[in-house]
Amino acid sequence: MRNNMINIDSKIEMRFFITVISAFAVCVGLTGCSGYSNESLYPKKVSSVYVEMFDNRSFWRGVEYKLTDALAKRIEAQTPYKVVSSRDRADSIINGQIVSIDQAGLSTERQTGRLLEKEVLLEAVVSWKDLKTGELLMNNQTVNASASYSEWQSQGFDYASALAANKLAQQIVEQMEVGW
After folding, report:
1. Most-buried pick from 71, 100, 101, 130 (CB within 10 A)?
2. Residue 148 belongs to some domain of the structure
3. Are 70 and 137 members of one domain?
């Protein structure tokens, strides 16, 4: 009699356990996957981009070349778009201007007050236009990036400005994604 009671109790526990697990699986299945999509993060109506040389409004020269080059390479590597060399063959055009390039001191040597580490700050305004429809895909979007350097480690402004330009290009490519 006692064995039958144990079998009945264990069967009830097993059914309860299976019911709870099944309910949990249904809840996860209904709510967990509802926001998932395998669609592209980038607009489908564009297939090629012409990257126009960035304008530079600062006193530091040469950074506009680094930024334009880094942006073209990032677009090719991280988006479905093809960068073309002729504006006539492009579906869209991306352009902008470097608004400011600043330097800031991050740390100083305690005894002499000499800067040990500096930071380069880049700010740019970027626009992206669909040439077929005339629609602005990105309208005067402000993007910022920074990079630090130390002359004690044989790094200079050129090193940090190239690094900051690459980070800025990465942020521009992220801005090219379609909003959620």
Report:
1. 71
2. yes
3. yes
What whole-number distance in Å separates Cα of residue 108 and Cα of residue 117? 7
Provide the residue range defining the domain that includes 152. Answer: 48-175
Least confident span in 48-52, 58-62, 106-110, 128-132:
106-110
- Here the CATH number for the domain that contains residue 98 is 3.30.160.150
In 22-163, beta strands by DSSP E: 48-51, 55-56, 82-83, 92-108, 115-130, 136-149
- Residue 140 inside a domain? The answer is yes
pLDDT in tens, 53-88: 999 999 888 999 999 999 999 999 999 999 999 999
What are the phi and psi torsion angles at 81 (to 5°)?
-85, 150
- Cα 132 from Cα 129, distance rounded (Å): 9
Per the rule left: phi > 0, alpha: psi between -120 and 50, beta: everything else, 113 is left
Q: Given the structure tokens 């005894």, which residue do they identify?
A: 111
Predicted TM-score (pTM) above 0.85: no
